[in-house]
Amino acid sequence: MLAATHAITGAIIAKVTPDPILGYALALASHPLLDYLPHWDLRTRHSRRPLQHTVVISLVDAGIGFFLGFLIAGNSVPPLRLLATMFVAQLPDWLEAPYVVFGWKFPPFSWIKSLQHTIHKKLPFPDGIYTQLILIFLLLLLSK
Question: 103: alpha, beta or left, given left = phi > 0 and alpha = psi -120 to 50?
């Protein structure tokens, strides 16, 4: 799943959940559920591109999600809470990053990597983008 999709989902959760603690819990729980949906992503884990390119692409993906999340919910959720909820929605990917970026192949990073690998359901481009767009559209409808 694109990091942007996780962040947008976190923003919508923050928007519809009055209790921040519940919002953080739902945002964290949303991550494996979204990863289980068939999707396409940027292949940040198994790419042949240089590591620096993968890091930049991943950060841009996450940043786009934060930007869109602020467009979606910035007027209805305090900024710090919104940012925190979007970050928590992406948290498993951030926790996997040391495994991929620094080669830290020991717990807890190896456990997170293994769990993430088990959960992910991939689709080729463009089909895997359509599932994410449909998901975001439905979540936006439900958040009105």
Answer: left
CA distances from 2 to 44, 80, 133, 140 (A): 10, 22, 11, 17
Torsion angles phi and psi, residue 45, rounded to 5: -90, -30
- Cβ neighbours for 66, distance < 8 A, ≥ 6 positions apart: 7, 83, 86
Number of domains in the chain: 1
Which are the contacts of 49, defined by CB distance < 8 A and separation ≥ 6?
Answer: 57
> Could you tell me the residue range of the domain that residue 58 belongs to?
3-142
* Residues making up the chain, counted from first to last: 144
Segment-wise mean pLDDT, segments of 10 residues, the chain, 144 residues? 95 97 98 93 70 90 97 97 98 94 94 91 87 94 89
The radius of gyration of the chain from alpha carbons, rounded to an integer in Å, stands at 15
